[in-house]
Amino acid sequence: MPMLATSRSLLHRTASAIGWWASSDRASGGPAPLPHTLETIAETAVEGGYSAGIGLGFCVPIKCPATSAFGHANLETATRVHEDSLFRIGACTRQFTAAAILLLAERSLLRLTDRLDLFLPGETGADRISVRDLLIADNAAYALLGRIVEHATGESFAGFVTDNLLVPAGMIASRFPDPTQITPHRASGYRLAADRAHDFRNAGAGHGAPAADGLHATAGDLLLWNRALYSGRLLARATVDLLIAASAESSPCPILAPVLDRQARGFGIEVGKIFGRRAFWQRGQAPGFDTWLFHFPDDRADLALLANTEQGAATILEPMLRAILRV
Asked: Count of domains in the chain?
């Protein structure tokens, strides 16, 4: 989808906010207006008609994690997005699945060198595919990893991840909802007709495997996930290092191309440099949703950007990254 056009006033407002962040006023002793900058950019996505709603979460050194909400979770009922709104996070789910597999390896319930046929005999090529191979592959592979978790634990994938990862991380709002069930605070997903701003259409729920793209989360919960994961609270430090290691080549993301220095694939996560800063990130796309989750270890900064419209977060991604990294 091409970048959507926006009005001159909204562009000016966003540019002014970024300019304020970068200006010499920051050196005069006044507080740096990062929240104002990020919130202004997020509002641009809604007011410009790029996304029905936006969930924003960020964390930088010294300041406490902060979340904000903009626009509508449901256009038909005029329900506003709030901090408890659940967005489907698409492929961002894969880092949770990878963490579940690595946790089972820590508990000696499997090895990364195990072949797929040990868990799922009869799958095509199962005698030649290892668990490690699946960890650096696509959504179809992650669906298989979810089945491996169930085989190794005797539990449902959603149940195991909830009890062993989400709850310990403090992610009490996040869940793997059944598409047919009524789930409080779940945002509806939209797409734009012919890329026309404000011309929203229902996207439909779509059906994927829970382990590949089924998690629904809030912006605040994704910040809690980053904190718990990268601090070594959920997995041993050596295991976290394994998850974020550059294990395979990865096709550069076109949206990040202007700011990306290099990119490779870890286990359920992308690794590389953005604006010259080390970064771990993932984009999650699902029918009606666009989610980005970033961790910048050297800057000790995190960004969670969730939109309930396809491409809705991508349209404001670069100014968001420039603001949080001060470039």
From this structure: 1
